[in-house]
Design brief:
The chain has helices spanning 12-22, 37-46, 80-89, 104-116, 131-141, 167-183, 299-313, 322-340, and strands at residues 3-8, 27-33, 54-56, 70-73, 93-97, 121-124, 148-158, 189-195, 220-226, 232-238, 240-252, 255-260, 268-278, 281-291, 346-347. By secondary structure, the protein is α/β, with parallel strands linked by helices. It has a 9-stranded mixed sheet. Strands 3-2-1-4-5-6 form a 6-stranded parallel sheet, sandwiched between helices. Helix 3 runs parallel beside helix 4 (104-116), helix 4 (104-116) runs antiparallel to helix 8 (322-340) and helix 6 (167-183) packs across helix 8. It starts with a strand and ends with a strand.
Amino acid sequence: MSLGIVILGVGRWGKHLVRNFANHPRVHLIAIVDPHQEQLAECRERFSLGENTILAESWQSIREHSSIDAVVIATPASTHYALILDALQLGYHVFTEKPLTLEPTECLELCQLAQQKQLQLFVDHTYLFNPAVEGGKKAIADGAIGNLRYGYASRTHLAPVRQDVDALWDLAIHDIGIFNYWLGQTPICVRAIGNIWLQPEGKMEFPAHKQNKQLPLSDLVWVTLTYPGGFQAQIHLCWCNPDKQRRLCAVGDRGTLIFDEMQTDSLLTLQRGTFKREETDFIPTDIATETLTLDTYEPLGRVCDRFIESIQTQTPSPISSGWVGLELVKILDALTRSLQQGGENIFLS
């Protein structure tokens, strides 16, 4: 039985979602929605959408279509809350681009509503479905790097520069999500410091009812996450750095696990090494490098498939449910407060 789906937003990422859902054997793509007619026309031609797929310029014009089972949202984060709330109230399952919303209280409300109405609220945490990230989770669980000590990550590039959210909200969710997944934990304390160069007068875009919040657009952010047991992760985020990096590492007492997206032939590497004590000296020993073998599949394709599966089995995803999205928004919100307070530690309950 196919599920009737409407996709809201067909920009850069929305087009990837159209491609995946339009070709999914258990999906009937009812409509795509975007205020830009040229985007809709491009999707029609690029993905050979039949005349039965409606091209709509507004959600209001399509929201009560009788065949809708689920709504896919790929619109700016500031619009998520209102759209998700409306879709859930209409009885539709929801797949949304991350972050779930910009406010933890709104995330909690949406999670509770979805649970009350027995609907699936699914957040597109694509990285958690990446074969390298799944491989890293297994390697850590198998003890490949021994007892965990600390982690670090860099996510930098030169553009695109967002005008609706800062570098923290744009970039950090990926690496925080991976560390949480690898550790099977969430941080108990966070801190962040940042710099603003490009848009000193810019402000994050919040929904109309949140306009009293005035958050500047940081171009560079340094994040520290402290987990139960003392593991710390440091994350470097910047969108005005010509040195593009997509690298995340977990260090243990027997080696380091490295996920590096820029190394397409060796996405996940295990670098082993320990010390041998000789009197007062520490001598490196057991040095070895291994490129881990990974499964081959498109992460977003798996994300879309898991959303359909979660609906058909009425089983929330353990790594992409609204509740997981809520935890990540709580962390981002705490990091924002730390930024505003000049890098103060913020403790999470």
